[in-house]
């Protein structure tokens, strides 16, 4: 599956995690924890890339 935007990938991983939680009936099931860790890893990777980028290539900040 190919994603054109970071947000789409985050939403996909989040949806998959929630689907697994519903399927297993538990947020502490090993499959759900693994999915959560994948989501966390992806988010941290995106954040590291955004903060280490030069101002010209930095991702825009979200409005507050």
TrEMBL record:
Signal peptide start and end residues: none
Pfam families with a match to the protein in the record: SpoOE-like
Listed InterPro entries: HLH_DNA-bd_sf, Spo0E-like, Spo0E-like_sf
Protein name: Spo0E family sporulation regulatory protein-aspartic acid phosphatase
The organism of origin for this protein: Alicyclobacillus fodiniaquatilis
